Structures are given as structure tokens and as C-alpha cells.
Amino acid sequence: MTKYVPLILFTVLTNAAAQIMLKKGMLSVGTFSFEASELFGAAIRTVLNPFVFAGLCVFVISMASHLVVLSRVDLSFAYPFLSLAYVVAAFYAYFIFKEDLNAVRIAGIGLICAGTFLIARSA
């Protein structure tokens, strides 16, 4: 199972990259409205935003690689690694979007990393 860790990490990194692109795109699109009269126009503007579109494409790549992983590795081994996407996204959000990364979030990130390490060692 450990020979698939690089593919799993590729899935994690592409998942995080997709989230970052989607966030960047949504910052330029603005607040999404659920008003019936504006919903279709907002959806079109959102999907046509270059960052949102790129994020959706990268997310498809991430899901495709995850499907490959699932065809070869136990779900109970592979799935917890996806939590590392949160770790990557949290650090990017801090540096790129200037989002808060307080002590509680850092502690949570540490727990995620420790849990993923334990799962990786269980193979």
C-alpha cells in the first residue's frame, strides 16, 4: 500500500489546489445569490470565471486520481490522507488570502498530521 502514497499525495495536492483556485475565483465573483431571478446569471458568471473553471478542472483530475487510488488501496488507508488537503489549503489560505491561522487551528492541523502519520505506518 505504501507504494501508492505518491499517487495519494498527488490527489491531496490537486484537491487543495482546486480549493485554492475556487476560492480565488469566488473572491472575484463575489457573494453568490440564491435569489431565483439572479441564480442563473450568477451560476453562469461563476462557472465562466477563469479561476473557478480551472479549479473545477483540477478537481476533476483530483477525483480521477482518487478513483485510481481506490482501485488499488484500502479505503480505510487512502481516505484519511485526504485530510492533508485541509492542511495544505490552510497554509495557502494563510499566506495567499491572509486568513487567520490561530493556535487552535494549528493544533488541529498537528492532530491531522499525526493521525495521517499513524495511518501511513499501519500499512
Write a structural description.
- The chain has helices at residues 5-29, 36-48, 50-70, 75-78, 84-96, 103-121.
- It has one domain.
- Helix 1 (5-29) packs antiparallel against helix 3 and helix 1 (5-29) runs parallel beside helix 5.
- The chain is mainly α and 123 residues long.
- Average pLDDT level: 91
Total discrete domains: 1
How much helical structure, as a percent, in the residues? over 70%
Count of β-strands: 0
**Class computed from helices, strands and strand pairing:** mainly alpha
Which overall shape is indicated by the principal axes computed on the Cα atoms?
globular
C-alpha termini separation? 6 Å
Number of helices: 6
* Main sheet properties: none
Weakly predicted, low-confidence segments = none
**SSE series:** HHHHHH
Features of the shown structure:
123 residues; mainly alpha; 77% helix
Question: How do the helices and strands line up, and which of them pair or pack?
Answer:
Layout lengths: L4 H25 L6 H13 L1 H21 L4 H4 L5 H13 L6 H19 L2
Helix pairs in contact: 1-3, 1-5
Condensed summary:
By secondary structure, the chain is an all-alpha fold. It contains six helices and no strands.
